[in-house]
Each structure stands twice: as C-alpha cells, then as structure tokens.
Amino acid sequence: MKSIKVPKTVVKRYVSPLLWEFDTVTIRMILATASACFATALLSSGQPFSREAYSIMEAVGHEVFWSLAFVLHTIGTYWRLAEAKSRPRWALCINAYGAFIWSFATVSITVALGYLVPTLALAYVVVPLAFWALIRTAMQPERVTP
C-alpha cells in the first residue's frame, strides 16, 4: 500500500495558517456555547449522576457543582470575547480551565463506561479544540477582534 505524501508547500501554505494564524474567536464561541449547553443539560436532565457514566464525576462533585463549573467557563470565555482590552493572563487561565474541565468530564465518562460513547462525539471534538485554544493563547498574545 502506497502512502500519500503531502507536499510541504501545501502544509506551509494552507494548514499552518489554519492552525497558527487564524483568529480563535469562532472556536472560543463554540467552546463557551458547548459549556453552557453541558451545564444546562446537567441541571435539566433529572438526576444524571445516578447513571453509571457519571460515577467518576460524581466522586468529585454533584450535578450543581459541575454545572457551575461549566457556567464559569462559559462566562469567562464570553467575557474574554466581549472585552476589547487584551488580558493574556486571564485568557490563558480561562483556556486552561476549559481544557481541564472538558478533558476531565469527557475522559471520566468514557472511562466509567469503558468504551468510546457515540453520544460524546462532539465532546471528543471539543477537547482538542479546547487544547488548541490553550496552546494558541500560550504561544502568542491574545488577539482581540474589533
């Protein structure tokens, strides 16, 4: 079987700018909205922590604790998106916090069940996006879109 070789010029011209130069506003909006949805789902789904899937998360805190944790991420992320003043340390803290809570929640549900859960497909996408936002924030100053 032949391997496909992508010319370096393609990577340099198209992929590299996507990863390292484009604004992260859209991704951060997705992360904030996903956190708001997760928080809402935790409070409105009628005792979700009674299910086996949430056993690890429940060991750390109740539904209200986790809901507030995700609401805090939502508020912090939308604050950073709305405020025009650059605050690199706050941006780094908020993005690190988001990467942590999304990773913990997604991994704990997956580990508790023992397999990749199809209903967590979007969470499996959100985790790398959260780390991408964190890495971008750590590598260069926060960009504020006018």
Q: What is this structure, in a nutshell?
A:
The protein has 146 residues and is an all-alpha fold. It has 6 helices and no strands. It is flat, with a radius of gyration of 17 Å.
Q: Would you write up a description of this structure?
A:
There is one protein chain. The protein is mainly alpha-helical and 146 residues long. The termini are far apart. It contains six helices and no strands. The mean pLDDT is 86. Helix 5 packs antiparallel against helix 6. The protein has one domain. The relative contact order is 0.15.
- Helix coverage percent: over 70%
Report the principal-axis shape.
Answer: flat
Question: What portion of residues belong to β-strands?
Answer: under 5%
Helix/strand class: mainly alpha
Largest sheet: none
Number of strands: 0
Whole-number tally of structural domains: 1
User: How many angstroms separate the termini?
Assistant: 49 Å
Number of helices: 6
**SSE string, helix = H, strand = E?**
HHHHHH
Break the fold down into its secondary structure elements and pairings.
Layout: H1 8-20, H2 25-44, H3 55-60, H4 63-82, H5 88-113, H6 121-139
What features would you highlight for this structure?
single chain, 71% helix, 146 residues, mainly alpha
